[in-house]
Amino acid sequence: MKNNVITQARVKNIILIVIGSLLYAISVNVFTVPNGLAEGGLTGFSLILFYLFGLPPSYTIFIINIFILAIGYKFLDKKTLYYTLIANGIISVLLLVVTQWAFIPETTLLAPIGSGVFMGAGIGLIMLGHGTTAGSDIIAKLLHKYAGINVPTALLLIDVFIVVPSAFIIGAENAFLTLINLYIQSKVIDFILEGLNPRKSFFIISAKYVEIAEAIEQQLGRGITILDGKGYYTKEKKEILYIIISRREVLRIKRIVEAIDPNAFMTISHVQEVTGEGFSYLSEEVQAQRITEAEEEWND
C-alpha cells in the first residue's frame, strides 16, 4: 500500500513536471524568442548567448544548469535534486521539439503577457512537482550563505543583473516588455502555488522544533519566533515556532517540517498585512495615524 502511494506520488510529480516543462518551452520558443524578448535568471543568460552567438537555448540552458547543480547540489534535498534533473532534461528536449511555432502579435503587449503566463505556469507546476529550474535558485542560496544576502533579494539581483545588460542587445523597449513578462511570471507562480493571499503565517509544534527552525533559517533565511506554550490536557510545556512567510515559501516550509517530523502539528493562516523587519515598514504618517486610532479606542 505504501509503495503504491509513493509510486502514485512520483507519477503525479513527473506529470506536473512534464506539463510545466512544456509550458516553459512554449514560453521561450513561441513568445519570448520570436518577439526578441529576454528572461530573468539563467534562462535569460542563455537567451543573451543566443542573440549574440546563435547558441541554441536548449543546449546552453541544460549545460549551465548542470554546471550550477554540480556546484550547489548540497543546497537541494535528494528528492528535489532528482526531480530538478528530470525537469532540466525534459525542458532541454522540449526546447528542441517546440521550434516550429511562433506567435508574433500585432498588439505588442500580448507577447510579454503570453510569455509571462506560460513561463509562470510552467515554473509553478514544476515546483508543485517538487522540482526546480535550478540555476537562479541555487545561486541565490550560495549568495545567501557566502554573502549574507537573503534569498528573495538575491533572486531579484540575479534578474536585474541579466535583464539590464539585455537592454543593450534587444533594445530598451523589449527590455521594458521583459520586465512586464517577469512581473506576470511572478504573479502566475504565486497564484499556482498558493493562490492570491499576500502572506502566510505558520504555527508549528514539534519535539524537533530546533531542527526545524535551523532548517528553515538555513534554507529560507527567514526569522523565527519561539513561543512558550503548554498543553491543556497533558500540562506539558511545548515550544511553538511562529513564522511569517511569502506565498512562494509555503510549500518549502511544509516539506521541511514533514521531512523532519511527520507528526508535527502545523497550522497555516492568511495574513492580510505584515510590517516590520524583513517585510515592510510603516511610514511616519501611517504610524501617527495608527497611534491616533489606538488612542481613540482607549479613550472610548
Automatic annotation (TrEMBL):
It comes from the Bacteria. Its main location: membrane. Residues 222-276 form the DUF2179 domain. It is a multi-pass membrane protein. The chain crosses the membrane at residues 12-33, 45-69, 81-103, 109-128, 149-170. Pfam families: DUF2179, YitT_membrane. This is Membrane protein. It comes from Alkalibacterium putridalgicola. The lineage of its organism: Bacteria, Bacillati, Bacillota, Bacilli, Lactobacillales.
